[in-house]
Structure to design on (842 residues):
């Protein structure tokens, strides 16, 4: 059994994957943003503290006076559990106050920048100091007093616990937000998917709810995307309805066709029983026999048709030689025809191959030739001719094979040609015995093989049944 | 059993039975006291502190009772000496360092000498009484002024710094050489309290001027100052630690201890574990014990105001609240303390100090 793929599940899995992807992206973005933001904000604190320190360094009588403000340390203590280090140095790199062993001070860079004579921007750098990773800021301040000037460097560093903690908190908030977003979106999408798939459900419901005999068109409102589906269903149901009606008529007609000869048989048999005269009785019994044979023929045709209908559905086509098949059929029927003083003549020597069902085609040929023989006058000839592209003058027929079966009977008037393929149709002035089903079957077989079926008048009198097959070239086997 | 033993120790101390091996006794010339363990296998926990050994002894004994394998050696030093010893003699660093000089303690911790104690501090203690779970405040002690009421003679008892200034102005020459102060250059705690004043108060400058004009005497320890007060060598002592002063006042009612009503500075004694301690587990449990309700109530019983405000008793924070006092301004245990250790800042304060007190010579022993 083929595993059916649920549309709903596919949609769910898709949306889940897409959402997961978006969420991860959002989290990743938030992570980067958090790190950047905390870095910037804590760098600002560091910068603020350094500025406040620098603010309180003055030059008095050529001496650097450092009176650090408590606010600088209060600023630093905003990250309450981080250690802080600071140092104030002069241009000879002597520590004026603060920590004397701060590492990795980027003096070369400072000197480079100061030589470019630009206002010196604060420099940030990180280093390991006293067992922890520390972020430092260094800025320089030029102290002025009358004609003297001195430059000092202020270095402030702080460990990064608060940064990490803030970033972590931010990430957690982002995670919470994204989770909530994920859940809400998923729920909304679930609802939307349910909403979108509901018309399909309603079609199913509409079909299951109706009775098995109701083949009228579905009357439900669906979105335009699903309307074609409903259209197809409705079309199919109309077809089915049509077929069922035909089947019904056929069944009724078949029953009628069988009952009428049976009624005749019964009355004839009754008469025969009552008949005293032996000669007449014999005549009546012969009539019974004839009627029985006719009935048998009808029943056989019906069975054949049933078999063919089954074959049409179950048997794949095979590759076969059409001309051989026609010759075989003619051979089978020639003796029977001769009994009726009719000759069957196979004309032409075209060879052609087609894809088809051998049994069905044979049945078709049988029915047509039999029909032709039946309506032929005594000592008449039924001509069977197969023409392929080599014999046909018209180029358009190059891929076709035309089979003609010609008789010299009375022919079929134009009005009858329209009805002759209907089941049990028999012309009013038809005198020959027959079921009225043979040609219908023949036509069905032809159509099943995508062959076209034409009726033409023969000269001077008679009927030509023409079937045009599509050929298969040898190479395409 | 525990209590019985603790009681025994108390008896030994009371009777001064120093011949007993189990009695705390000075082990050498510096004030070092040993508190033996109760079991054979021992862990030696060394503690350095400024607190009077007699006051801290009950806490040690109670800790030993809980941890029988522990032996404690306590060395009593003044705050500056504590700090210098720690820096200068790495091999003699204690396992536990206790000091009221919050700035010096903080500096050591900031410089990475402390070990983190991961067990969360008790809920009963304020959040800002610890830093990084490395430095732990454990007492809550007001900085007070102490006055020998003999000087008053009709003048009202000053309650604020402003009134103290008025009193000094009124009595003028009577107070020459009769005002006692910590020598801020030698006593860490004195420097801390004084520099904190410089941040807090507008009276600071006038106080310094008044102290200078009246040739204030400089001391290096509380006891000497209190005794001088008793003897009448001093009438006013400024910026003393409340714990000792209040006890003194209880004994000698004419020596009055006052919490200034303009604001009252509060210091916390702090403790940290040496990062290189050989017994981190014992050291951590000692800190936990120090901060526990039991430890805190033992401090209260010794006359030291504990940090935990749930503790009741005459030396508790609750009792302090009932006395006249100003806004309590605890010196924050944070990076602000670094400014107290800044050498340039220190020099500025020293310069002001020297300029005001000029030729004042410390009367240290």
């Amino acid at each position: 059994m083929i595993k059916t793929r649920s549309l709903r599940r596919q949609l769910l899995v898709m949306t889940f994957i897409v959402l997961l992807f978006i969420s991860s992206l959002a989290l990743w973005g938030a992570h980067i943003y958090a790190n950047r933001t905390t870095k910037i904000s804590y760098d600002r604190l560091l910068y603020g503290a350094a500025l406040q320190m620098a603010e309180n360094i003055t030059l008095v009588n050529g001496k650097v006076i450092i009176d650090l403000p408590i606010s600088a340390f209060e600023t630093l203590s905003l990250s309450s559990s981080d250690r802080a280090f600071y140092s104030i140095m002069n241009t000879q790199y002597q520590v004026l106050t603060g920590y004397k062993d701060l590492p990795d001070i980027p003096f070369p860079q400072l000197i480079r920048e100061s030589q470019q004579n630009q206002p010196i921007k604060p420099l940030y750098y990180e280093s390991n100091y006293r067992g922890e990773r520390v972020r430092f800021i260094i800025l320089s301040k030029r102290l002025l007093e009358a004609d003297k000037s001195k430059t000092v460097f202020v270095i402030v560093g702080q460990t990064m616990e608060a940064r990490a903690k803030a970033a972590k908190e931010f990430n957690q908030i982002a995670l919470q937000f994204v989770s909530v977003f994920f859940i809400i979106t998923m729920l909304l999408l679930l609802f939307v998917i349910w909403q979108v798939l509901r018309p399909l459900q309603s079609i199913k419901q509409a079909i299951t709810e109706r009775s098995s005999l109701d083949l009228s068109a579905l009357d439900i409102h669906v979105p335009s995307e699903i309307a074609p589906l409903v259209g197809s269903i409705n079309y199919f149901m109309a077809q089915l309805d049509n077929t069922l009606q035909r089947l019904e008529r056929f069944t009724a007609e078949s029953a009628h066709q069988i009952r009428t000869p049976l009624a005749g048989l019964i009355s004839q048999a009754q008469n025969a029983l009552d008949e005293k005269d032996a000669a007449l009785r014999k005549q009546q019994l012969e009539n019974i026999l004839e009627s029985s044979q006719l009935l048998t023929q009808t029943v056989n045709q019906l069975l054949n048709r049933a078999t063919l209908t089954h074959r049409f559905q179950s048997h794949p086509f095979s590759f076969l030689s059409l001309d051989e098949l026609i010759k075989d059929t003619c051979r089978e029927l020639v003796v029977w025809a001769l009994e009726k003083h009719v000759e069957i003549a196979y004309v032409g020597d075209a060879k052609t191959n087609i894809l088809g069902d051998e049994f069905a085609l044979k049945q078709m040929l049988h029915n047509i030739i039999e029909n032709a023989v039946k309506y032929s006058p005594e000592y008449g000839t039924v001509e069977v001719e197969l023409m392929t592209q080599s014999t046909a003058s018209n180029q358009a027929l190059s891929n076709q094979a035309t089979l003609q079966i010609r008789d010299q009977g009375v022919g079929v008037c134009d009005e009858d040609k329209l009805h002759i393929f209907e089941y049990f149709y028999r012309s009013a002035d038809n005198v020959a015995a027959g079921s009225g089903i043979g040609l219908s079957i023949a036509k069905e077989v032809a159509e099943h093989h995508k062959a076209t079926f034409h009726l033409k008048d023969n000269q001077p009198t008679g009927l030509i049944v023409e079937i045009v097959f599509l050929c298969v070239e040898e190479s395409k086997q | 059993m525990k209590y019985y033993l603790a009681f025994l120790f108390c008896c030994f101390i009371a009777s001064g039975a120093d011949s007993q091996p189990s009695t705390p006794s000075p082990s050498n010339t510096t004030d070092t006291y040993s508190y033996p363990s109760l079991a054979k296998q021992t862990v030696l926990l060394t503690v350095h502190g400024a607190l009077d050994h007699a006051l801290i002894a009950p806490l040690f004994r109670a800790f030993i009772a809980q941890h029988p394998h522990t032996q404690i050696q306590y060395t009593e030093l003044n705050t500056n000496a504590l700090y210098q010893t720690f820096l200068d003699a790495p091999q003699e660093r204690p396992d536990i360092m206790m000091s009221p000089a919050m700035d010096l303690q903080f500096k050591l911790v900031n410089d990475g000498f402390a070990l983190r104690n991961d067990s969360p501090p008790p809920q009963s203690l304020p959040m800002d009484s610890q830093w990084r779970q490395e430095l732990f405040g454990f007492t809550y002690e007001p900085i007070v002024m102490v006055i020998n009421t003999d000087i008053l003679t009709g003048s009202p008892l000053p309650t604020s710094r402003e009134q103290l200034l008025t009193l000094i102005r009124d009595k003028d020459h009577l107070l020459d050489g009769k005002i006692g102060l910590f020598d801020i250059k030698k006593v860490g705690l004195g420097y801390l309290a004084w520099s904190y004043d410089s941040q807090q108060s507008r009276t600071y400058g006038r106080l310094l001027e008044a102290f200078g004009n009246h040739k204030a005497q400089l001391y290096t320890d509380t006891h000497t100052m209190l005794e001088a007060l008793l003897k009448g060598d001093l009438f006013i002592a400024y910026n003393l630690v409340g714990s000792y002063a209040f006890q003194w006042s209880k004994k000698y009612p004419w020596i009055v201890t006052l919490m200034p009503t303009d604001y009252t500075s509060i210091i916390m004694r702090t403790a940290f574990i040496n990062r290189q301690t050989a017994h981190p587990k014992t050291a951590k449990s000692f800190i936990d014990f120090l901060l526990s309700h039991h430890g805190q109530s033992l401090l209260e019983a010794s006359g030291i105001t504990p940090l935990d405000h749930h503790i009741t008793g005459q030396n508790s924070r609750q009792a302090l609240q009932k006395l006249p006092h100003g806004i309590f301004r605890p010196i924050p245990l944070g990076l602000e303390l670094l400014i107290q250790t800044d050498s340039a800042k220190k020099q500025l304060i020293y310069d002001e100090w020297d300029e005001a007190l000029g030729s004042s010579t410390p009367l240290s022993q």
